[in-house]
Amino acid sequence: MKINHQIYIKAPSEKVYKTLTTAEGWNAWFTDHTVLYMDENGGGKINLCWSNYGSKKENIKDGGAILAAVPNKSFIFQWSPGENPTTVQFELRPYKDGTLLLLDESGYASSPKDISACIGCAVGWGEALALLKIFIEYGIICKEDYRF
After folding, report:
1. Which domain holds residue 36?
2. Nearest in space to 15 (alpha carbons), one of 4, 28, 3, 5
């Protein structure tokens, strides 16, 4: 199973890339206490953290290895929203006056836990990319608004 999304962001790829490859960037549009370390070769580690998330007000931590980071072109990492690690790839392409951001997530198995995680992430990534667009284009931080 694979998740695919794309969104147009009216901003240069440098700005989108910086938002995706820094803890400050993630914490501005999606998470609360993410920690991200990248080495000079584009590897590293990402720990995504959410506090009081969703209707159950859960504290969630997930993350894994950063597999590749090519400045202004791509950012690839692993995490484990189900029972198996998945790979999330952001690809940035110049388009019109901005950036076309493509997201692919792969690695889900056919187990009930992975299928449930895949469905949740398919919806979640769509919402998250909209939040990313609003943040980058307008500087609006609205992640609190979607925590019902």
Report:
1. 2-146
2. 28
